[in-house]
C-alpha cells in the first residue's frame, strides 16, 4: 500500500508577468500578459505530488480573504488535501513573478505563511511508508517539528533548500534527502560548489555539507538533468529536450513527483527519472501549478528509456 505525501510549505497568490526578457537593474521592459494563479513552493509541490498520483496533505496557512479562498479552491481542484491548511488574520502570501523564456525573477511577501508553526506541523499522523517534504518559505521550527516526528515514525524526509538560505543547514541532520540547485549548493557548501559539478567535486560538496551515509544529495542542473550523490557514488540523469516557455515551478514539480514516487516505494532512481521528465514537460507551459502534468502524460513521454549513468 502506497504511503501519503505530507508537504509543509507556502501558499501564495502568484501575480505572473510574462515578458520576452527580464529587465536589468533600473530598466523598464514591456510585458505581454498579467495573470493571477496559485503559487508558493509548498502549494506547487503539493500539486506535483497529487498530479503524480499520491494522496497529498498540505500543511500551510492562508489569510481570511478572497485570495485565500481562491487558493484553497484551486488546491482542491488539483486533488490536494487542504483539510489542515489554517486560515489566519494575516493576508494570504503573495509573489510577483516576472518570467521570460530564459529565466524568472520573484519577489515574495510571506503574509500568512509566517503563521505556520510547530502546532500545525504536528497535526498529522505519520507512518514508515509516508514521505514528508518541506522548503524554506515557512518558519524553520515548523519544519523541524515535522521532520522530528517523521524520524520518530521512520517516514522519509525531503528538504528542498529553496529559496537559498543558510538556515537550511540547521535542518540537514533531520533530512533523508536534500534537493538543491547549483546556486543553492554554492550557498550551503561554499562559493565554488555551484560551479564545480564534476563527480569528485560533487562528492566533496556532499562531505562539506556533513551528510551522513543514510542521506542523499540531489543537485538539479536545469537542462542538464540532475545528479544523485550518495556517500561513495553518483548517478546522473540526463536532461530532456524541451522548448522552454516558462521555468517557474519546474523545480517544485520535480520535488512533488519525487516525493510521490518514493511514497509508492519506487526505487530512488526510477522516481527521479519520472520527476525529471515531469519537470521537462512543465517548462513547456506558462505558470507553475498549472503547468504540472499528470502522471499518464509523464509515463507516455518516457516511452523511450531515459539516460541514466552511474
TrEMBL record:
<keyword id="KW-0479">Metal-binding</keyword>
<dbReference type="GO" id="GO:0005829">
    <property type="term" value="C:cytosol"/>
</dbReference>
<feature type="binding site">
    <location>
        <position position="291"/>
    </location>
    <ligand>
        <name>K(+)</name>
    </ligand>
</feature>
<feature type="binding site">
    <location>
        <position position="282"/>
    </location>
    <ligand>
        <name>K(+)</name>
    </ligand>
</feature>
<feature type="binding site">
    <location>
        <position position="276"/>
    </location>
    <ligand>
        <name>ATP</name>
    </ligand>
</feature>
<keyword id="KW-0119">Carbohydrate metabolism</keyword>
<dbReference type="GO" id="GO:0046872">
    <property type="term" value="F:metal ion binding"/>
</dbReference>
<dbReference type="GO" id="GO:0005524">
    <property type="term" value="F:ATP binding"/>
</dbReference>
<protein>
    <recommendedName>
        <fullName>Ribokinase</fullName>
        <ecNumber>2.7.1.15</ecNumber>
    </recommendedName>
</protein>
<keyword id="KW-0418">Kinase</keyword>
<feature type="binding site">
    <location>
        <begin position="220"/>
        <end position="225"/>
    </location>
    <ligand>
        <name>ATP</name>
    </ligand>
</feature>
<dbReference type="Pfam" id="PF00294">
    <property type="entry name" value="PfkB"/>
</dbReference>
<comment type="similarity">
    <text>Belongs to the carbohydrate kinase PfkB family. Ribokinase subfamily.</text>
</comment>
<keyword id="KW-0630">Potassium</keyword>
<comment type="function">
    <text>Catalyzes the phosphorylation of ribose at O-5 in a reaction requiring ATP and magnesium. The resulting D-ribose-5-phosphate can then be used either for sythesis of nucleotides, histidine, and tryptophan, or as a component of the pentose phosphate pathway.</text>
</comment>
<dbReference type="InterPro" id="IPR011611">
    <property type="entry name" value="PfkB_dom"/>
</dbReference>
<feature type="binding site">
    <location>
        <begin position="40"/>
        <end position="44"/>
    </location>
    <ligand>
        <name>substrate</name>
    </ligand>
</feature>
<comment type="pathway">
    <text>Carbohydrate metabolism; D-ribose degradation; D-ribose 5-phosphate from beta-D-ribopyranose: step 2/2.</text>
</comment>
<feature type="binding site">
    <location>
        <position position="252"/>
    </location>
    <ligand>
        <name>substrate</name>
    </ligand>
</feature>
<keyword id="KW-0547">Nucleotide-binding</keyword>
<keyword id="KW-0963">Cytoplasm</keyword>
<feature type="binding site">
    <location>
        <begin position="251"/>
        <end position="252"/>
    </location>
    <ligand>
        <name>ATP</name>
    </ligand>
</feature>
<comment type="subunit">
    <text>Homodimer.</text>
</comment>
<feature type="binding site">
    <location>
        <position position="137"/>
    </location>
    <ligand>
        <name>substrate</name>
    </ligand>
</feature>
<keyword id="KW-0808">Transferase</keyword>
<feature type="domain" description="Carbohydrate kinase PfkB">
    <location>
        <begin position="4"/>
        <end position="294"/>
    </location>
</feature>
<feature type="binding site">
    <location>
        <position position="285"/>
    </location>
    <ligand>
        <name>K(+)</name>
    </ligand>
</feature>
<dbReference type="InterPro" id="IPR029056">
    <property type="entry name" value="Ribokinase-like"/>
</dbReference>
<feature type="binding site">
    <location>
        <position position="287"/>
    </location>
    <ligand>
        <name>K(+)</name>
    </ligand>
</feature>
<feature type="active site" description="Proton acceptor">
    <location>
        <position position="252"/>
    </location>
</feature>
<feature type="binding site">
    <location>
        <position position="246"/>
    </location>
    <ligand>
        <name>K(+)</name>
    </ligand>
</feature>
<dbReference type="InterPro" id="IPR011877">
    <property type="entry name" value="Ribokinase"/>
</dbReference>
<feature type="binding site">
    <location>
        <position position="181"/>
    </location>
    <ligand>
        <name>ATP</name>
    </ligand>
</feature>
<feature type="binding site">
    <location>
        <position position="248"/>
    </location>
    <ligand>
        <name>K(+)</name>
    </ligand>
</feature>
<keyword id="KW-0067">ATP-binding</keyword>
<dbReference type="GO" id="GO:0004747">
    <property type="term" value="F:ribokinase activity"/>
</dbReference>
<keyword id="KW-0460">Magnesium</keyword>
<dbReference type="GO" id="GO:0019303">
    <property type="term" value="P:D-ribose catabolic process"/>
</dbReference>
<dbReference type="InterPro" id="IPR002139">
    <property type="entry name" value="Ribo/fructo_kinase"/>
</dbReference>
<feature type="binding site">
    <location>
        <begin position="12"/>
        <end position="14"/>
    </location>
    <ligand>
        <name>substrate</name>
    </ligand>
</feature>
